[in-house]
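User: Thanks for the earlier help. One more: Phosphoglycerate mutase. Can you show the sequence and predicted structure together?

Assistant: Of course, both are below.
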Amino acid sequence: MQLHLIRHPRPAVEPGICYGQTDLGLAESPAAVAERLRPLLPESFALHASPLARARLLAESLGRPRLDERLKEIHFGDWEGRSFTDIGSAIDDWAADPLGFRPPGGESPREMATRVLQWLAEHGLTPRTPDAAGIRASPPLPDALVVVAHGGPLRAIAGHLLGMPPERWIGLDFGCGQVTRIDVEDWGTVLRWFNR
């Protein structure tokens, strides 16, 4: 199965603003981004997306997406809409525990990854038992799956499927309006290309 992971187009937000689940407008046309990406996608595919407008609008330009709350970006709670400068030294607490830290009223990266990986498992991508390698599909996988979401959820999906430890997922820097392809086979996964 071909898995295509697409990060939403560039949002209309000032640099340095923490926005997580804040529903923002876009700084570029989702239709234009869809046209640019379409040649990189297979002719037919199952389409899933975050319901946040910046992902949903691009997905709707590509087809008829199934929206799922679990594909939303991390919830930054009281930090949403604030500048990182205003948040101040609390950022140091996050840096000290990048997976477990939870902003006031929000969720931790680990909690976000848990909901995203629940979605992934429900759609047929689950680790095999320890005595077998690769990926087990149940129910059968579509030939191609396109997911339009956000940096955090896409890192969790790709990092998990590629067998990376969660501490390394932050290194998967998904570009806005770009697509990454991972092929999921019975014997495992292959990163075909990143950020096209």
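User: Great, one quick takeaway?

Assistant: The helical segments are 30-37, 53-62, 84-87, 90-96, 109-122, 151-161.
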